[in-house]
Write a structure and sequence with these properties.
Blueprint: E1 2-3, E2 9-14, E3 22-28, E4 31-39, E5 43-49, E6 51-52, E7 57-58, E8 64-68, E9 71-75, E10 82-84, E11 100-101, E12 103-106, E13 109-113
Antiparallel strand pairs: 1-2, 2-13, 3-4, 4-5, 5-11, 6-7, 8-9, 9-10, 12-13
Length: 114
Amino acid sequence: MHRDELGNWNAVCSLDEIVPNTGVCALLDGQQVAVFRVADAEDRVFAIGNFDPNSGAAVLSRGMVGSLGERIVVASPIYKHHFDLMTGECLEAPENSVASYRARIEGGKVWIGA
C-alpha cells in the first residue's frame, strides 16, 4: 500500500487486480476493508468495512455484488444480508451497518480515503 503526499488517500491495489463486479480485501490502518469494482457504464470502486456484524465474520469482500432498486449492494456470503456500497447500510438490519470509505481510481490504481 502506498500513501499519497497528503496522507489522506492510500493506494490499495491495481484496478486490474479486481475482477469486475467482485471485491477484494485490503488492510487500511489495521482495519479490513472490502473494496469492490463495479463495471457498469464505467468502472467505479467502492469500499466498506469487511466485517459482517450479522455473522461475526470478515467476509463482505467475498459477497455477491448486485443492485436492489437504485442501490448498489453486496450480499454477505453467510446470511445474505445486503450492504449498500455507498453508505455501508445493512438493508435488513440497519443497526448492523458497516463503515464506508471514500474510493477512487487514479493512474490505474484503486485509492481508499483514510
